[in-house]
Structures are given as C-alpha cells and as structure tokens.
Design brief:
The chain has 474 residues and is of the alpha+beta class. It folds into 3 domains: 196 residues, endopeptidase domain like (from Nostoc punctiforme) (endopeptidase fold (from Nostoc punctiforme)); 141 residues, no CATH class; 83 residues, SH3 Domains (SH3 type barrels, Roll), CATH 2.30.30. 20% of the residues lie in helices and 27% in strands. Strands 1-22-21-20-19-23-18 form a 7-stranded mixed β-sheet. The protein has a 5-stranded antiparallel β-sheet with strand order 9-8-7-4-10, with no helix packed on it. It is globular and about 60 Å long. The relative contact order is 0.17.
C-alpha cells in the first residue's frame, strides 16, 4: 500500500498501488497553525540560533569523508579518470538493466498500456553497445538547460501501474544549467548521452549539453566559481540574457552557483543586479561561455551561507508549499531533492537518495526496537533544522517540539491515515510542516513509528552530554 512519497532515485523502495481511496489533505495539516508555517515561529524556540554549527573547514572535511565513501554514489566529475574500457561501461549498462529494466515486473507507458517486448528490444538497441570502442575517452560537458536525467535513453515513462503518472521509475532526477557531467557514450539514435553527474549516472538529451574541447575549459570555469561564487539562495531564481532583464534564459533552483563577474570587468546593468558567466552551446555542440544577468531583487548570496540554525530554517521555509515531484520530472521536488537543495547553499554535499542522505552526519543511535517514547527521548537531544529524519523511502528535516508534539518540514506526496474509521490515502503533494503523528491509524503507522535514522549535521560538541554518550559514528 502506498504510504509515503519515495526519494526519487531510491533503488530498493517500491510502491504498491493496492491503495485506499485518495482524499485531498486539508491545509494546514492537523496540529499545524498558520503561525507554524513561518520560520520565525521555530527560530524563536532555539537558544543562540545564529551560532555556527560547522565552519567552512569542518564542512569541507565532512564533504571529503562523504566523497571518499563509494556507497554514497557521489562523484567529483572533474577528477574522474579519462579512459574507460568497453567492459567497464557494459558493466554499468548491466547494473542499470538489472535494477530498472527487469521484465519480471510489468511496467506501463504513458498511454497506460504495458511496455511491450518491442519497446524493450528497441531500448536495448538504443543503448548502442555495438558502438562501444575498446577504450572510450571521457568527454566533459556543462548542462545549458534544465534536463531530465533518465535511467534509459527514452522519454517514455516506466510506471508501476497504469495510473501512476506521478512515479516514473525511469526518472532519476533533473540537472540544471552549470552542472558538470562526464560523457561515457552516446545512444544509437545520437539523441542521448550516457553521463556521470555529481550524484548518479544516467542518460540526458545531448542538446542539453555543451561539450568542452579541452578539460582546461572546465577547470578554469570551476576555478572562477571558487574565486567569486554567487549562490542561488531563493527557491528559484530567474537568469536573463540581457542586462535589462527582459529576455529570460532559464530559472535555477536553490543551491546552484555561478561565477560572478566583477564590476570592473563588465558594463554594470543600468538597473543594478548581478552579472554571471554561464555555459552556452554552439551549433556544433561545443562549449562556449557568455554573460547572463540576475536582477538585484533576486534571492542570491555572494559565497556560501554561514551554517547556522536560523539560516537553515529560513532556507527550508523558502521551499514550503512548493509542489512535490518525483525526480523533479514535473518541476517540483521530491523529499530527497528538498534535503539536497536545502544544504547546498551552505556548501554541504549530499547524495541524491534519501537512504544515502541518512548516512551523512552524526548518528544519534540505533532506533531498532525503540518504542515511540524512546524515539521521542532521542529527539529531545536533536538540533532543530540541522537534523534529518529518515524512514523507508522518505526523509524529513526536524523542526523541534511544540506543545508536546515533534514537527518536521518535508516534501511529501501522500500518506495513509484513517477518516471516519476507514483507511484513506491523504494526498498532500507539496512541502509541508507536519507533526510526527501524521499517518497514525494507517496500516504502516505514524511517521514517528517508522523513523529508522536520526542524523545531526553539526559538530558533536554541540549535542547534549546525554546524546554524545550514545553516538554511533561521525
């Protein structure tokens, strides 16, 4: 039974659609007042909300530990080896197929019909294994427009049931302008590139990429970002072609960054704002760079934000009520993208999958076999806004306690509960504030009952003495 939204790129979490009737959730949710949907409500509950939880050096150390852990699937694309054998790439194809291409389970297409043998055979051909040379040279490219990162080289969805349009199993995530990728291979129809992103590999449309002639072009661009980083701190920010902000190029979500061009090196827009350098695609697919413009009124920050509870809370609430979207296919965020985008403006590298995100930070101890009271006792020592709460297929950000109830903010599709004694699927479909009793009465139980991991992204010395005694590992 579908009880909660999944992570968007989870490899093991499946949806069962023998679900009860769907009803629209009330707004706000039970036990949530309008005041509780504002960040200041929660910030006021915290002592010293502007203290630094991790300084830049500590964040860098945490990132290095995450990047060295192969289980998190993170990648420094610019440091990838540049020669790949046919056998290595074919092993990637086999892994993808074994996880997502199993024909033992029926997948449905956009018309509601099962994907046919013809579809699967054509899909296999489009992987273009015959076109793999003995050795392939990795090409480096930058994304120039929002693009879907797909499991296979197709726009056809892979749905669990005929009506499951919200959950396309062939959708990994979306990539946004400025994202660096490495290109392993191209499809037989030459429309798709098989790429490695910073958090997962998959297929993207070739026209969304600008390919560097030399790796030096990429490293110089990344160096520019390091020297003069402009971070997107709003929910979404508009980028324009012209300094008068008349012609929109694209919009980018929270956490993305571009190199800002100093005013001494450019003509200052007459109406103010920021001039940035962005990748652009030539007619032959090659990379070039151009200037673009962000209005002064947009929510951006020069450099990473200081990692404080007040900043974390304000960033999270900028995404409140934004639509839920599995893998960002329809423009919103799923639960793990919410977490990824939240921590990115602070320079914190997170995996894309909710299960893997729950491996980052300080583990407050095993929850296996814990009662609800024992879980609540552990939450008493958590750090609001810097604590992630994970349950199978879902992840949330802990907000704190109010009138005896524990609360979180998260992007959620829906959850099973009861209405007038009968089970119903409460469709929420957006980022919300909820208390952890949500789902009580459903067959799987409340959010609190299902929590399996509590992780704090802060230095251990900030935890209470009781919590430090029970730490698993940093």
């Amino acid at each position: 039974m579908l009880t909660i939204s999944l992570s968007g790129v989870g490899l093991s979490d499946e949806i069962s659609f023998s679900a009860p009737p769907v009803v629209e959730a009330p707004h706000p949710l039970p036990h949530v007042s309008p005041a509780m949907e504002r960040p200041d409500f929660w910030i006021r509950k915290v002592n010293d909300p502007d203290r630094i939880l991790l300084d830049p050096q500590e964040i860098q150390k945490m990132n290095e530990e995450s990047l060295r852990n192969p289980a998190l699937l993170l990648c420094r694309v610019q440091e990838m080896k540049e020669t790949w054998t046919r056998e290595e790439i074919e092993a990637f194809f086999e892994e993808d197929w074994n996880v997502f291409g199993s024909q033992s389970e029926i997948r449905y297409g956009k018309n509601g019909s099962p994907l046919s043998d013809l579809f699967w055979n054509e899909l296999r051909k489009n992987l273009n294994r015959a076109g793999l040379p003995a050795r392939s040279l990795l090409l480096f490219a930058l994304v120039v427009e929002r693009t879907d990162l797909r499991v296979f080289p197709t726009d056809e969805p892979g749905l669990k049931n005929p009506g499951g349009q919200d959950f396309d199993r062939f959708q990994h995530a979306s990539l946004y302008p400025g994202s660096l990728v490495g290109i392993y291979h191209v499809s037989a129809d030459r429309r798709w590139a098989y790429i490695q992103s910073s958090f997962i590999r998959g297929w993207v449309r070739i026209e969304s990429l600008a390919i560097a002639k030399e790796k030096r072009e990429i490293t110089e661009y990344l160096d520019m970002i390091e020297r003069n980083r402009l971070v997107i701190t709003g929910n979404s920010v508009s980028v324009y072609r012209d300094p008068e902000h008349q012609e929109l190029l694209f919009s980018v979500p929270m956490g993305n960054a571009f190199p800002m061009i100093p005013s001494s090196n450019r003509l200052t827009p007459s109406n103010g704002g920021h001039t940035i350098r962005i990748p652009s695609r030539e007619n032959d697919g090659r990379l070039r760079f151009r200037e673009a413009y962000i209005p002064k009124s947009e929510d951006v920050h020069h450099g990473f934000l200081p990692y404080t509870q007040s900043n974390l809370c304000r960033q999270a609430f900028k995404m409140l009520h934004q639509p839920y979207s599995w893998g960002e296919r329809s423009g919103g965020r799923d639960c793990s993208r919410f977490i990824l985008d939240l921590f990115a403006p602070f320079g914190i590298v997170m995996p894309r999958n909710s299960k893997l995100q729950a491996e980052v930070g300080v583990d407050l101890g095993s929850l296996k076999g814990k009662t609800l009271k024992e879980k609540e006792h552990i939450l008493e020592g958590a750090i609001p806004f810097a604590t992630t709460l994970r349950l199978p297929g879902h992840i949330m950000l802990y907000l704190g306690k109010h009138r005896g109830r524990h609360y979180a903010i998260h992007s959620i599709w829906g959850i099973e509960t009861r209405n007038k004694g009968a089970p119903v699927l409460l469709r929420i479909g957006k980022a919300v504030v909820s208390d952890l009793t949500l789902g009580k009465g459903g067959s799987a139980g409340s959010l609190l009952r299902r929590i399996t991991d509590i992780r704090v992204l802060a230095r251990p010395t900030l935890l209470s003495h009781r919590q430090r005694e029970g730490l698993q590992s940093p």
